[in-house]
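To close the chapter, one final illustration. This time we ask the reader to focus less on the individual chains and more on the assembly as a whole: which components sit near each other, and how the overall shape emerges from the parts.
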Amino acid sequence: MFKIARNLYEYRELVAELTRKDITVRYKQAYLGIAWAILRPLSLMLIFTLVKSFVGIDSGTIPYPILTFAALMPWVFFQDATTEGIGSVVKNAPLVRKIYFPREIFPLTAVTTKLVELGISSLILAALMLWYQMAPTVHFLWIPLIILYTLLVSMTISLMGAAVNVSYRDVGAALPIVISLLMYASPVIYPLQLVRDKLVTQQAAGEWSDLLYTIYTLNPLAGIIDSFQNVVLRGLPPDFSSMLPGMVLTAILLPLSYRFFKLEEAYFADVI
Amino acid sequence: MPIIEINHVSKEYRLGTLTSLKDSARNIARRLRRQPLTKRKPFEALHDIAFTIDQGEVVGIIGNNGAGKSTLLKLLANVTTPTSGTIAVRGKVAPLIEVGAGLVPDLTGRENVFLNATILGISKADIARKFDEIVGFSELEDFIDTPIKRYSSGMKIRLAFAIATSVDAEILIIDEVLAVGDLAFQRKCFERMENLIKGRGSTVLIVSHNIRQIERMCSRVILLDQGKVAADGRPLEIADLFYRRSNEKIESDHKKAQQGKVHKYSSGEIELASVELLNEQNQSIDSIPSGGALRVRVKFNVNKTLQRPEIVVGTHTTDFFYLSASSTALIEDRPDLDVGSHEVEYIVPSFPLVAGTYCVRFAIFDQYQRKIFTGETLKIFTVLPNSLEIRDAPMRRLYLPTQWRLDGVPHSSPMPASAEMAAS
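The assembled structure is written out below.
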């Protein structure tokens, strides 16, 4: 743990430079520049709102567009960061072959650069809040922690995925699909409250209900999205009961994923 | 304490493609059933290498393609890990393995300087301090804010070289990057490299095929051959050894390539039996020393009596450049050749060609110049270099004993022992 931190500190300038590079390169020669970053969550929000008007999803007291936008923010961040993270080592193959520095810097920078887009979409969120006349509460202070947790979840998948992707490019192709499917198993289109009502309150699946709910919340994104909506829109602290299973899972998998990455790291230059 | 310590290091690569998913799954199944696994053939790029390098040494690593030079540098740069053995590197390593590995086309020259320098491990403060000097050296002042994808390839390389050589590190690793750009810039590069090496007292490892450059810059040279340390010592000696070995390899390659490529014509009146090279003891040989005697013996059978035929023996290079041809045409009393076997000897007391591979040709014409037999590459032989020759200028074909007058004082270039023997 200490060694990881020291490594990262030692290479902080490199991480900063690589992050800056990723961001600059992404928006160079694009006239709309960074505006593209917000187009996706915004358009998804509009589509979901349209769909919602046919299907009818109970969004509680919060207007649906802002509720789903608040879900899309951490979701899109997670999805983009992880996809980028998985491909990061292969994408930097010339560097991998020539120069040594701790290879986890690749997924790490890939994931952190996506914070920029997250920051920009938060401006849209602010505008939406203004529109719906919602005031920020003291629970906004939770946001950095929730984002950090999302980043760790993304790193868990990225480290493992990036390492396997070096040998089997299938991973780079398959994981983004899996992740985008994961969206439907996450409370993005619908609020977590709906799932909780069905399973915990109404016990819809009989004696299996509580177990099913735990399995559902093993997906860290379930807790993340719900908590993000809580602290931003509902003026409530994060709901730790919905976050716990996912947190435990991440706490177990992240070290394993990191270990795996470090073991494989030695062979990157040989097989990439 | 040595700054680099390499202990019985081997590095294997597996040949062929990466294991497919199917093979991996099959191997897992086999492992579960404790059956032997299917393995791909390993290729040993380095085999049991061991040496140490002290602080401040400038070490050149030479060897043929595939000798393991780049693998060794990669191991030292920690880009890859050895299959067995250990490597201890005490100090910061700056790898200049291939200039421009980290240049990003979309970024401007300025952005690339900062990015690439950071990748090479230069701190931000240092880059800022050295920035003007880097740009000045690369002669790109006017283009520094242009994305480098619009640079010419020479401009890119100049920039990359300037960045790479501004690294301050205890150990510099340089792989074939030395001379880049046009001639004027190449000279600048050399100077900068030499300053870098001599000025700082840092430990340097250079891989290059430019042996003269290695000889000039290094205090020690390691010769790798097929993944093993073949020699390790003073630059001159090792370079000589390397030249010798390279020549041998070129020759054996030539010989292989020439086999079956014999150009022959025969009218049927004679049949060639053998072409041999002989030494003074009448033993058949394949090589002569530079400046030594060349003695060729040709045996052939005549099927029909030939009246005063003309016999020609000559030499040519492996690429059919005719070097010499001597004919019996000028011998007035040359004999007729009866039916039966005959033997012709051709002797050059001192063969004046430099080290290399040469071939013998042989021809017979009848008295009216009608072609009866011609043959090329009938015998391939080697002229071996002598120790003096390696130190001499290579731009020549002929090896001639010379005399000099330097400021009126006569000097003669030393004759190699073998040539003296041949001459006496």
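Chain A has a mean pLDDT of 88. Chain A touches chain B at residues 13-14, 17-18, 20-21, 24-25, 28-29, 94-101, 167-168, 170, 266-267, 269-271 (CB under 8 Å). With these observations in hand, you are ready for the problems at the end of the chapter.
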